[in-house]
Write a structure and sequence with these properties.
Blueprint: H1 11-19, E1 25-29, H2 35-39, E2 44-47, H3 52-60, E3 73-76, H4 88-99, E4 108-111, H5 113-120, E5 125-129, E6 138-141
Parallel strand pairs: 1-5, 2-5, 3-4
Antiparallel strand pairs: 1-6, 3-6
Helix pairs in contact: 3-4
Pfam families: RbsD_FucU
InterPro entries: RbsD-like_sf (IPR023750), RbsD/FucU_mutarotase (IPR050443), RbsD_FucU (IPR007721)
Protein name: RbsD or FucU transport
Length: about 150
């Protein structure tokens, strides 16, 4: 156990986060997600006791989001709907992002299911939760730490 680090962040997940560089993306997915197929040999970290919101909160306690892009967050659009529709779970996660100062709702991009899968194929890793809520899949683009780069 380490002080100040969320206990949900396993050694495997901490290693995965530490290996990510600026612009790399990590997926936090529900239990229904086709993680192993889409990961194509990349890390799949399992958090079976966590839901998507809890996992996102833990990961983002250490992972800075990319401030150099307009939408550093993407989420899988619920099938059969059109933006701006968001499920209750998506609204909770996006609300948490805003509340904690990670991203505002406009910085969260709804992404059609197969377009989301395409983006996941290029992600650094997938965190597979035990969340049974379908369409509960988010993608986060890593930023940088250090001095403010914007003049």
């Amino acid at each position: 156990m380490l002080k100040g680090i969320d206990p949900l962040l396993t050694p495997e997940l901490l290693k995965t986060l530490a290996e990510m560089g600026h612009g790399d993306e990590i997926v936090i997915a529900d239990a229904n997600f086709t993680a192993v197929t889409l990961a194509q040999g990349k890390p799949v970290v399992r958090l079976p006791g966590a839901d998507v919101e809890r996992a996102a909160r833990a990961v983002l306690s250490l992972l800075p989001l990319d401030a150099m892009v307009d939408q550093p967050v993407a989420y899988m659009q619920v099938g059969g709907t059109e933006p701006p529709y968001r499920s209750a779970q998506q609204r909770r996660v996006i609300g948490m992002l805003a509340e904690l100062g990670h991203a505002q709702p406009a910085q969260c991009q709804p992404t059609e299911r197969f377009a989301f899968y395409d983006r996941v194929r290029h992600a650094h890793a997938i965190v597979l939760t035990g969340d049974l809520q379908p369409w509960g899949n988010f993608l986060f683009k890593k930023g940088v730490l250090g001095e403010d780069l914007v003049p």
